Amino acid sequence: MVVTIDGPAGAGKSSAARTLAERLGFAFLDTGGMYRAVAFAALERGVELTDAEGLLRIAQGVAIESLDGRVVLDGLDVTRAVRTVRVTAATRHAADHPGVREHLVQMQRQTAEGRDLVTEGRDQSTVVFPDAQCKIFLTASERVRAERRFLDLSGRGERLSLDEVLRAQHQRDEEDFHRPTGGLIKAPDAIEVNTDGLSPEQVVERLMTLVSASRGPIVDEPRVGRPANK
């Protein structure tokens, strides 16, 4: 079974999807981490982000795994490194590149083969897994999303004001909704969940209810071969 969670930046997709996967005993795929890994690799290797051919070579030449909350690039754990402001600003070059996107979409589909999966991003319901059994569009108000991002960055030692985070997020929203490749679109059959005023646990409970409705009763025990996280 594939559960897709799409939505704008700061809606809480990654944390909700990761916890949901743990509760279900599913694998968790963070597709944003894959694009971040490509951008990080380009920066580290001195490839110009505007070099379309060079960026595609990077994507095709590296091994990326973005499962269960870890991003691994060529065997190296870069989970924290790909979440910096520097890499975030560079990631759009990878995300907007049609060739890179096509390559990573194929990797995402291969990752789903033979496993139950919760996957999050912005085109999972519409492009990558259009036949997913359960599609969710997770969102929140612009201010709430910016506040969450601000707290996350502060916790990682990034020194930005809330207003700076809000401006950057507004620009990213505009870019995400108007991207010619892989733009953020709510699938017609996706169920929208607004997380304003909800605790992380309340969000996951709501998502569990939606998944349950799509596949029958769910017990809070792992139902696949992958062991639950302790």
TrEMBL record:
EC number: 2.7.4.25
CDD domains tied to this protein: CMPK
Alphabetized UniProt keyword annotations: ATP-binding, Cytoplasm, Kinase, Nucleotide-binding, Transferase
Catalytic reaction list: dCMP + ATP = dCDP + ADP; CMP + ATP = CDP + ADP
Cytidylate kinase domain span: 3-211
Classification via Pfam families: Cytidylate_kin
Organism superkingdom: Bacteria
Subcellular location: Cytoplasm
Subcellular location, principal: cytoplasm
Family listed: Belongs to the cytidylate kinase family. Type 1 subfamily.
Protein name per the record: Cytidylate kinase
Gene name tied to this protein: cmk
